[in-house]
Structures are given as C-alpha cells and as structure tokens.
## 1
Amino acid sequence: MDTGQGTGNRILVVGAGATGGFFGGRLAAAGRDVTFLVRPHRAATLGERGLRITGLGERTLIEPRLIGAGEITQPYDVVLLSVKATGLAQAIEDVAPAVGRGTSIVPFLNGMAHLDALNARFGAESVLGGVVKVATTVDADGDVVRLAPMAELTIGEQHGQPSQRLREVCGLLSAPGFETAVTADIITAMWHKWVFIVTVGALTCLARGSVGEIVGVPGGARLGPGILAEAAAVSAAAGHPLPAGELDWITEMVTRRGSDFTSSTYRDVVAGQSTEVEHVFGDLVGRARALSVDTPLLDLATLQLRVHQHRTATAL
Ligand SMILES: NC(=O)C1=CN([C@@H]2O[C@H](COP(=O)(O)OP(=O)(O)OC[C@H]3O[C@@H](n4cnc5c(N)ncnc54)[C@H](OP(=O)(O)O)[C@@H]3O)[C@@H](O)[C@H]2O)C=CC1
Ligand SMILES: CC(C)(CO)C(=O)C(=O)O
C-alpha cells in the first residue's frame, strides 16, 4: 500500500453523513480512491446535489462515487465506519463483503463498545481504534455543515504496538483540511474522548441549554465539573486516568461564560431525534456499576435520555 491512487488504496466510507461525508469528502477532494457505501435515500440526495461541505465560509462540491449494500464485489483496503451506534449492527452486515484479510477498519464512533462488536465479527487484527474530533452536522438539504474549525483523526493499533500498516493507513488517510495522527494508546484516547462527550452531553441535556446559558445561572457552573468528576472516575477505574491538563481543558469547556457550545446529543433531543444513549451513556454507567463507581448525575442524564429514546421510538 502506498499513498497514491489505485489498487491497494481503495477506501470505503460506510455512511456519508456528518463525519463520513466530511472526512471522506476531504479525502476524495485530495484525489484518494474513495467510495461511499450509502442507503437509497442518501444515494438519491448525493446523486442529485453531489456531496457538499459548507459552513465556516467553505463551499466544497464533490461528485462522490457511491455503492449500495449488495453491490460490493471485492474487499477494500481501508473501511471508514462512520455510522451512528444505532446503525452499527446493520452496517456491520452490509460492509462484510468489503472486509478481506488485508482490510483495516477505522471506526469513527464515540464510545467503546463498537470495538467489541467489530472485533467479534471481523477479528481484532482487522480493526484499528479511531478518534475523530470534528463538529459537523447534516442540514435539511443533505449538505455536510461544519460547526467549528477543529478537524482531527487519530488512529492506532488496539494492541498499542507500532506497525507498518498503521503508518500506511495514516498516510492514506492524510489530506488537506484535517490533521491525521497515530497514537500508541488509542484505547486511552478513545476513553478520554468518551469522557468529554458524556460530560458535555449530560451537562447540556440535564440543564437543557448551552454552556453559557447554564453557567450564567446560580449553581450552573458547578454542574459541568460535577459530571466530569464522575466520568473521569469511571475512566480512571477502567485504567485510563485523565491527565490534569486534559481535566483542566474539559473543565474550561464546560464552565466558559457566554459560550454557545452545546452537544450533538442535546441538539438531537431538541430536534426530537433519537440519540446514541445506550452506546454513549448507558454503556458508561453500566461500566461504572461494574467498577463500583457512583455516577448519580450520569445516571440521571441516562434516564432522561432513555425516556426521550422511548418516546421517539414509540412515536414512529
Ligand atoms: N458529527 C460529529 O460532529 C461527530 C460525530 N461523532 C460520532 O461519529 C459517529 C457518526 O456520527 P455522524 O457522522 O454525526 O452521524 P450521521 O447520522 O450524520 O451519519 C451517519 C450516516 O450513516 C449512514 N448509515 C447508517 N447505516 C448505514 C448503512 N447500513 N449503510 C450505509 N450508510 C449507513 C446514515 O445514512 P442514512 O441517511 O441512510 O440513515 C448517515 O448518513 C457517531 O458515533 C458520532 O457520535 C464523533 C465526533 C464528532
Ligand atoms: C462535542 C463534539 C462536537 C466534539 O466532537 C461532539 O462530537 C458531540 O457533541 O457529540
């Protein structure tokens, strides 16, 4: 595998939504051999409008190469798995024909449990760990919209050892418009991203507002650090303590006065959409129980999101 285009460099992006559309679009724009595995209604939108990345002054248009489940005839070299946790089981079945002996799967999902599902289905040697730091969404027209400038992809071997294929995958996944990095401890990186996501998700969902709205009322500034302490305690008990600098950074994010920062979970709740409650919140509080860590605030947030999930499911 080298980093040019052609045989040995075929990338399949599963899902062309907020993250897959962004990173896959960037890679396609850089001339990489990118195909998007999409379902019929997304294929129709992309076929009509193309893949557009907007926001922060950007107007990128790509003519994406699309494929449907059932049309995959040979393995790809790298599979970027960018579905939400609620679509994971189906996506695993749909993408299976694309996974051969030399395929590396890079999951974009928040949380941890997807690694177990992917390892069980494809073997741990096929699955890299992945952390994406980006803030993107899909608007009513189907365009990928950037909400904040950060754009980073970090990958690593689950076993933590350096490898030639990790370097090659990193090269293949490097393109202008985002940073790509490798780490020797992707499991810890995934845990720490998880702590951040549940903290901002629980804060904004429990208090129903942006960070600035929450810290602007009496008592509001204590909630974020309280939630962070619980999530960080679970991560530490699982063997992944957060360094002081990372705790300080998250604390600053959840206590910044005037901040309009929210979370994708809160935006989904407000829009009446389903969330990744079990994968992102339920799994963490389940692990907290198993590790004998008390998480009353996270339990409450999880309960609230479960009620929302039940309501959206029964409203269908
Ligand atoms: N958005 C963000 O800023 C960030 C998201 N993440 C995480 O990344 C993961 C993906 O999130 P995000 O990209 O936002 O989600 P989106 O819902 O925007 O995109 C997921 C896409 O996957 C598609 N999909 C689902 N199942 C299949 C399937 N079987 N075959 C083909 N396509 C499928 C969906 O298509 P369809 O339209 O057909 O349903 C949808 O377009 C989540 O775990 C999220 O938590 C992490 C960091 C930042
Ligand atoms: C906070 C953010 C935008 C960062 O990745 C995110 O992924 C989320 O809110 O779920």
Note: The CA atoms of residues 61 and 283 lie 38 Å apart.
## 2
Amino acid sequence: MRWKVAILTASDRGSRGEREDTSAQVIRELVEEEIQGDIIEYRVVPDEMDEIMAALIEMTDYFQADLILTTGGTGLAARDVTPEATLSVIDRSAPGFAEAMRMKSIEKSPRAMLSRAVTGIRGSTLIINLPGSPKGVHESLMAIIDVLPHALSILTGREQEHADES
Ligand SMILES: Nc1ncnc2c1ncn2[C@@H]1O[C@H](COP(=O)(O)OP(=O)(O)OP(=O)(O)O)[C@@H](O)[C@H]1O
Ligand SMILES: Nc1nc2c(c(=O)[nH]1)N[C@H]1C(S)=C(S)[C@@H](COP(=O)(O)O)O[C@H]1N2
C-alpha cells in the first residue's frame, strides 16, 4: 500500500473560490514525485477553527490518512488559527518537523519565522502545517521530505510499496 496523503487548505479567499489553489498543487506534485504518495482527500476550508478541526478529524479517523499536509493560516494575522486547530486534535506533539522547516526556511527568507506551524500525531496520522504561499510550501516541504518515509514507516508499522508491486 502506498502512503495515503490528505491535503487541507485553510484560506478564506480559497474557500470563496477567489484564488487558484496553487499551494495545494505544489504539495500534490512533491508528494507524488518525492515520496510516491497517493492524495486520497483534498479540501479547502475558511480560516475557522471548527472547520479546520472537523476536516482534520475526518481525514484521520474516517479516511485514515497516513499524512495530512495543511497549507495556510499559520501566520500572525487574527484569523490565522491552523496551529491552534491542529493542537486541539493531536494526541502527541512531533515538533522536530516544524523546527526543521523553520530552520531551513529562515536561511532563504527571514520571514519564515512568522510561521507558527506545528506538527503532531493523531492516532497513527502525522499532521504537518505548511505556510500558505506556494514558495513557502515548497521550501518547507523540501526541508523534511527525505525523512518523511522513515517517519511514516515507524508511525504506521508499514513500508511504502514500490511502484512495481501491486
Ligand atoms: N492556497 C494558496 N494558493 C496560492 N497562493 C496562496 C495560497 N495561500 C496563500 N497564497 C499566497 O500567499 C500570500 C500570503 O498568504 P496569506 O495566508 O496571507 O493569504 P491571504 O490571501 O491574506 O489570506 P487567505 O488565504 O486566508 O484568504 C497570499 O497573498 C497569496 O499570494
Ligand atoms: N519557507 C518559507 N516559509 C515561510 C515563508 C516563505 O516565503 N518561505 N513565508 C512566511 C510568511 S511571509 C508568513 S506570513 C508565514 C505564515 O503564512 P500563512 O499565514 O500563509 O500560513 O509563513 C512564512 N513561512
């Protein structure tokens, strides 16, 4: 079985259909190319705590994603609540991913320190917050992508299936 990955975009504009969700496209490409994962669910919600929480819970408990990658809502603006919603649904914190993303990203853009992204575990699902911009998504995800397969193997007790296996 390949890694089951869900994408959650938290964006007021995106949820109103006012902007093409290129950040989610960046995530999809990196997941498919770099870790050969399958996108099993994709959703866009406004920057509302209850809607983000509900989507995260459904993606873990119902869709049983191995990995959820969120984009947006991690900054300092009043409506940025993705980290709080994530903290409300996780059982265990896994801060190393967020630390690595900020550390690597700050070398390229000092503004990366504005992201309050968190990473944690609900059941056997790893939840990772990414910033909203496509550039922020790419830089952040590339900082951790090499470690993700090993992390998911430990968390799920499975290995990623290779492309030539059924
Ligand atoms: N899902 C996305 N797809 C493409 N670009 C995005 C996305 N989210 C954010 N961006 C880009 O990153 C910039 C900064 O993101 P920020 O979260 O402040 O967006 P916003 O438009 O102010 O808020 P919201 O996305 O909640 O409506 C935006 O101006 C936009 O150019
Ligand atoms: N790697 C990386 N991280 C980044 C950025 C970036 O350009 N590259 N932009 C930052 C900026 S400008 C903001 S405001 C925060 C929060 O973005 P968000 O509210 O869209 O999640 O992410 C930061 N993280």
Note: The mean pLDDT is 96.
## 3
Amino acid sequence: MSDEMPTDLEVVPNPPPLPDRPDDGHKGLFGRVLVVGGSDAMLGAPVLAGTAALRTGSGLVQLALPRAMVPFALSITPELTSLPLGENPNRTMLAEAANKADVLVVGPGMGTARLARLRLWRLLTVDKPAVLDADALNLIAASGEWPATTSLRAVLTPHPGEMARLMPLIGGSDPAGGPPRVPTDDAGRLRVAVAAARAFKQVVLLKGKRTVIADGRRVYVNTTGDSSLSKGGTGDVLAGIIGSLIGQGMERFEAASLGAWIHGRAGEIAGKKLGPRSVLARDVVEAIGEVLRAM
Ligand SMILES: NC(=O)C1=CN([C@@H]2O[C@H](COP(=O)(O)OP(=O)(O)OC[C@H]3O[C@@H](n4cnc5c(N)ncnc54)[C@H](OP(=O)(O)O)[C@@H]3O)[C@@H](O)[C@H]2O)[C@@H](O)CC1
Ligand SMILES: Nc1ncnc2c1ncn2[C@@H]1O[C@H](COP(=O)(O)OP(=O)(O)O)[C@@H](O)[C@H]1O
C-alpha cells in the first residue's frame, strides 16, 4: 500500500439528494432488502439493520437468521419477514432469497463460525449489489485474500478495527512490525479507504468521526454525526440505511455517501433529545424519519 496521497481523486463536497418516491408507488417499487446475519450471541444487529432499512423507505425487508431467533426478531419488528436458517448450510434457499432481493446486507451479528463462512461464500457468487459489514468483512479478512470470483457489487463498511484486519489484503503493514493499524488523521484515513477501494474494486466506507467513502475515483468525507453514535449497534443501523438506499435505486457510492450523512444526522437528533450518552442504536433508527422529512 502506497504512503502517497492519491492526486487523481474527485472530492465530492455534498451527498446526493434522496431518490424520488412516486405517490402511486407500491412496496415492490421501493426495494426488497435481504439482511443475512445474527448468531446465537447477537440478535440485535440484524434486527437493527432491517428496521433501519424499513425506516429509510424500503418496501420489503427479509431477515435470514438462525431459526431459533426468528420469533424474537419478528416480535421486535413485526414488519420484517424472515428466512429461518437451520443447522445445515441452507445455501440453496439462501441463494434463492438472495436472487429475489434487490440488495443484500450481509454480516451484522453473523459470527465467524463455519456455517457463517459457508453462507457468505455462497452469497459472494450472487450477482447483486450488497453491503458487506462486520463479520462478512472479518471472514474475508481471515481468508487472507479478496474473493476475486465474487459477483457481488459491494459497499464494504469497516470500522477501523475491521479495516486493520483487511489491510494485509491490500499490502498494508505496520512499519514497526506489529499488527496493521489504520491512521487516525484525516489524510491517512482517506489514503487507506482509497487504497482499499482500488485494490478490491469496490466502494469502501471507513467508519469513524468524518467517515470516508471512496470508490477509487471519487471520495466523500462525511461531516454529520457525533459521540451519540459511539455505542454498539449503530454500525448495523448504517448498514441497513445504505442497503435501503441501494434498494431504492441509488448507485453504491452515492448510497453510501447519503447513508452516512443521514445516519450522522439521525445520531445528532437522537443526541439532542436524549443526551449523547444515553442514545441507543434503536433511537438512531427512530430519528431517521425526522431526518428524511426535513430533506
Ligand atoms: N446488539 C448486537 O447484536 C450487536 C452486535 N454487534 C456485532 O458484533 C460483532 C463484532 O463486532 P464488534 O465491532 O463489536 O467487534 P470487533 O470487530 O472485534 O471490533 C472491536 C475491535 O475493533 C476495534 N475498533 C472498533 N471500532 C473502532 C474504532 N471506531 N476505532 C478504532 N478501533 C475500533 C477495537 O479496538 P480497541 O478499541 O479495542 O483497540 C477492537 O479491537 C459483529 O458481528 C457486529 O455486527 C455489534 O454491532 C454490537 C451490537
Ligand atoms: N464520535 C463519532 N462521531 C461520528 N460518528 C461516530 C462516532 N462514533 C461512532 N460513530 C459512527 O457510529 C458507527 C459505529 O459503527 P460500528 O463501530 O461498526 O458499531 P457496531 O459494530 O457496534 O454497530 C459508525 O458509523 C461510526 O462512524
């Protein structure tokens, strides 16, 4: 990975507007999102992602998650539908659901066990746009190389810890010989996001204060958001928002940029109501409506 700052980038100053929502539309027009995630220890992550997608305007959101969790997940958000996953890899049913969807959100709370890996590898062969988050990224990092055969057109949404795990795949290392680390300054974060986008040929969103979105040619640095978002589950909310915008027809870089902006504003609004310390990820989901109404 080069230490040079790329000089051939278009810096996008503002996120794009929301896509149109025709008055005579129906749920089939506004995107079918499939969220694949959840594991014994983590139910909240896929539910937060799916609920955020519904709040952002998706017509239909289905959660593919372990069978035992389905009743609990649906009792939190009954507007979600489910694909119960059993102990076998269930890869055919999963691939069928993925093929019916307009966009996939893969990884929130999925864990890194064998079944999760098998399911992810099956999904990587589906020709769909996707948001790859959390454990989807950890599984790819653990495999040691970017899956060159993937047909997914993805937005990767690593936090700096996940990005550090991916860095060996783009030739990133710590000069001192320790584990790779993501720089904390703006220029360094931008360099890493652009290098990853170019190496993987995907859209990369590097989370944190001043989230960076890069597609290899363009870069957008988000300015919304504060410490109201510094709590478990808010990244899952972001994955759902971006998936929803892609499902509503937005191009991936634009969806990731606008999604980061909406997510940050929703965090700020929730923080004003409750105080930044007390905001939960679900409060960020609840604030999405206020953000969208004002746009
Ligand atoms: N309710 C639920 O169901 C929830 C489920 N969740 C699910 O949990 C799973 C594991 O995801 P996870 O992010 O919690 O663990 P992991 O990837 O090991 O990250 C921690 C490591 O990364 C680093 N690090 C993190 N952020 C950083 C930053 N901004 N800046 C810098 N470093 C940062 C951090 O480093 P440290 O600060 O400790 O030095 C640490 O090493 C995943 O499936 C997710 O979806 C969660 O979404 C929560 C709610
Ligand atoms: N101080 C902050 N300012 C702006 N955004 C923040 C801040 N703290 C966290 N965030 C945002 O909150 C989200 C946290 O995501 P992540 O670390 O993946 O959480 P989780 O995995 O628990 O859902 C990211 O979008 C990140 O950019």
Note: The chain has one domain: 29-293.
## 4
Amino acid sequence: MTISFFVPAHITGFFSIENNTDPLKNGSLGAGFLLDRGVKTTIKDSSEFKINVNQGSDIVINEVLKHFKINAPFEITQDIQLPIGAGFGTSAASALSLSLALNEFFDFGYSYEECGQIAHMVEVSLGGGLGDVIGQTGSGMVLRTSPGAPGVGRIESFDEDLFVATKFFGEIDTASIIRNPQHKKLISKTGHECLNEFMQDISVGKFLELSLIFSQNTKLMTDEVKSLVDYFNSSDDILGASMAMLGNTVFAFAYNESAFKNLNIKNLDIDKLYKKRQL
Ligand SMILES: Nc1ncnc2c1ncn2[C@@H]1O[C@H](COP(=O)(O)OP(=O)(O)O)[C@@H](O)[C@H]1O
Ligand SMILES: CC(C)(COP(=O)(O)O)[C@@H](O)C(=O)O
C-alpha cells in the first residue's frame, strides 16, 4: 500500500506572536497565503524502516513520529518542493503531511484536526513556526483571527486567482527571531497594528500594503530583499511585493504571469495561489 498527502507552502505577510503555555493555544495572528507547491509525503510498506528526504534532515519527521506508536517497518519519502528556512512554512508542511499520511496508512482513526494538532505541537516545540499549520488547512489568502492549532485557533480563507513570484536569497532561523524578546515585542506591536487595519478592509491590495509596512517597521528586511521589493513595486503590472516571514525571500503578486516574465529577473519561481479542492 502507498499513501501520499500534499500540504501547500504558507507564506506570512504580517503576524503577531501569541504565546501560551498550552501548546495547542500557542500560536500567532496575522495574514498570509498558500502556494501550489509545498511538501508531499508518501508512506509505503517496506521490509526495513527508511526515511528519504530530498533536502533538510529528519528532525521534523522524528518529532512527528514521537506522537505515533508504530511497530511495523515502513518507508517515508518527503518531496520538499521549496527551500527550507526561507519563510515558506516547509517545516509545518512536512509535519502536517506526515501526520495525515501516518494516520491514514496505519488507520489510527484521528480526525483531520487531530492530525493538525500533532503537527502544530511539533512546530511549536521545534520553534519552526506558530501559525503555519492552521494556515495550511485553509485556501488562497488566509487570515488568522484566533491563535493556536487547527480546531483551537480560527482562520478565514479568501480564494483569489493570482500568480505569485518568489525569489529566495537565503535562510532566516525562525526560532532565533520568534524566541528573541526584542524581536517579539516589535513584531507583536506592529503585527497588531497591521491586523487592526486589515480587519477594516480585507483585500489583496491591503494585504500587500500592510505586509510591506510590517517588514519595514519590524526592521526584518535585508538590503537585497528591499531592493528587489522596490523594483517589483515600481512596476505598474505588479500588484505589490514584500518579504516572506520569516525568510530572506521576496514575494510579489500579479494577475498575469507575463507581468513577471517581462521583468526578466533571474531565478524567479512563479506559482499560482493554492485553492483547496472541494471534497
Ligand atoms: N524536512 C524538513 N522540513 C522542514 N524543515 C526542516 C526539515 N529538516 C530540517 N529542517 C530544519 O527545520 C528548520 C526549518 O526552519 P523554518 O525557519 O521554520 O523553515 P520554514 O520557513 O521553511 O518553515 C530549519 O532549521 C531546517 O534546517
Ligand atoms: C512567521 C512564522 C512565525 C514562521 O514562518 P516560517 O519561517 O515560514 O516557518 C509563521 O509560523 C507565523 O506564525 O506566521
């Protein structure tokens, strides 16, 4: 038997850190969006236990496995379709796709939300993220209105037909930012301001405008990210651009793919905004 689960990448535009001693309530508020690429985890029968990952280590996988009691040997294959540590929420997508796949393969009988809660606990314990797992249960542009794991926090999804360009310059260690008191204070103050403004006008244009304000006011934007963001924002065909939280990565939105191709930027990846299929 072979079971595969795909979970989309989640990029945050702005957020506030909402820590709680209960890991299921520990999380973030904010807004982001999902991409058509993500992480696909496949599980199949095998005579010995095997892990194949196309990048990174088995740290996320081992943390997820601690939550499941499995005696039989099996093989895990993870296809991580975007760079790790670059603000694409790959650690959350790895954890969630693996939880869902293990649940189905071994017939544990957990609900979708319970699998999400396992992935969320793995994320917060490793410091890989706060709101990516719940965001990844949504569709299109995702607003987080109450912090925590799936079934505990709350999100709202907005489907949009958009193209997203991303350019990756390098990693940012998420844990070192979200566990640093100075960063936490500034991120949460700015994140709450952005969220309050967004609630008055929930739109793609406002999301892009506030994401840029957030990345400037939190001083998280590096020089190379800033110059590409400025270049994108100088084009009339681009709806807006900002930095992917938390990575050394630029994202930009457009209604047409040609808007990006005309700019001739090297190593630009182009995705569509992810739409959840109706079951
Ligand atoms: N399979 C994996 N998937 C995701 N992250 C991994 C994996 N293996 C190792 N890691 C580590 O987990 C951390 C992910 O960092 P994080 O900043 O949360 O990335 P992302 O923005 O992609 O979620 C990095 O330290 C990375 O080295
Ligand atoms: C921004 C971040 C805290 C981290 O995101 P990433 O680096 O992609 O894991 C995210 O989880 C969020 O809560 O908004």
Note: The mean pLDDT is 96.
